[in-house]
Write a structure and sequence with these properties.
Layout: H1 2-28, H2 35-53, H3 56-66, H4 73-90, H5 94-117, H6 120-140, H7 147-155, H8 161-184, H9 200-214, E1 222-226, E2 232-234, E3 240-244, H10 251-269, H11 286-300, H12 304-317, H13 326-333, H14 350-365, H15 374-386, H16 412-431, H17 435-440, H18 445-456
Helix pairs in contact: 1-2, 2-5, 3-4, 5-6, 6-7, 8-14, 9-10, 10-11, 11-16, 14-15, 14-16
Cobalt (II) ion binds at residues 260, 264, 290, 293.
Length: 466
Amino acid sequence: MLDELKDYLKKLEYINSTIALLDWDVMVNMPEKAEKYRSEMLGYLSGEYYKMTTSEKLKQLIEHFKANDDLDEITKSSIDKIEKEYNKTKKIPEEQYKHYKIAASLSYSAWEEAKKKSDFSIFAPHLEKMVEYNKKFAKYWGFEQNSYNALLDIYEPSITTEKLDVVFGELRLAIVDLLKKINASNVSVDTEYFKKYCPKEAQQKFGKLVLDKMGYDYKKSGRIDESTHPFTTNFGNKDVRITTNYDENDLRKALYSTIHEGGHAIYEQNIPDDLQGTMLAEGASMAIHESQSRFYENLIGKSKEFWTYFYPIAQNEFNNFQGVSFDDFYRGLNEVKPSLIRIDADELTYSLHIIIRYEIEKMLFNDDLEVKDIPYIWNKKYEEYLGVKPKNDSEGVLQDMHWSDGSFGYFPSYALGNLYGAQFLNKMKKDILDLDEQIEEGNLKVVHEWLKNNIHKHVKRQITPN
Ligand code: CO
């Protein structure tokens, strides 16, 4: 019967991987007119997945093994994980789940068009649907009072608005306070050299060099492609793909999205082989996943040590840095300047972008805000917290894809990831006494090994307290 269970879980992962592969294709390759047929394919496969995660057969398997005491730890965790998913999915009526998946796919396309035309009204009816579906799901799961908590729990188990209000409340005040001081200072930083024309090919070459050093195997176990919004996806640990987005007039954009996604990708590649096909082969939580990408992007990728090694190479590869001293480059790289676009934000103001999205999501799900009023609230909060105001929806409320497919509750993961990352660096420095020197010599292997042993091998297992 154990073989039967393992076989069942494997089939579930196959469907999951197929859906992920089709989703990857939607964002990287798919011709425009293929949209309708593709959403039908995805709808069908999601339906099959739904059937398998709610079947009588699975229920019997879970019950059988729940009663069995002498299971190995991995199987036990698999059972707990699939039981949680069974309970969650079983409560959503099948037709609704299928319609939701189709609506999500159409909503993503509508968001793309809306962003291109900078017109929120194209996206608004789809967004309304996504919010309504998720509100309903939260009720099915038993979150009558605060449906947003149900959504937060998907990405960061046991985190709640009560906890986040405290953490984000403190963080917001501290950042806004520091930002005021920075804005009032008369220190200015030159960053013009980043904005000189820089051909895509040169950026690709340098990006690959950094990824190599980070230990991301894109040659035999991955790929690098382009998409509007950079992301990482994987089908097992031997096929982990990232995407990036090049701007030939600002090389920082692709460079930092590449490092960010590289941080996610090495996590997925380091998930142990024996966990493949067990439903456990994924990050411990989304915030832990984001901690890996944000850690590499900011704490390593903007550090003096990292650039001690990479700056001479960058000076060779790009025309941008002739006559720019290391110190000026380093200061420019770490410039603090409130901006409109989250993924381009500096390390300090980044979390404010997240806090704005968190506050808006919370209002939406507590019925304190209607979809049509989001752009107004969005712009108001940007002015209040960051002192900047979007000129249009494209650089405002439409910039992120997350809401288009119903991923509400995901954004807080990034800011929590920042906080986790800082703590990981602190511990890493205690464990590796010559960490700075190693990084200065381009030996990022020590970082990779530490992350692998302390973070990456710890996946999404249910910890049963005893
Ligand atoms: Co990320």
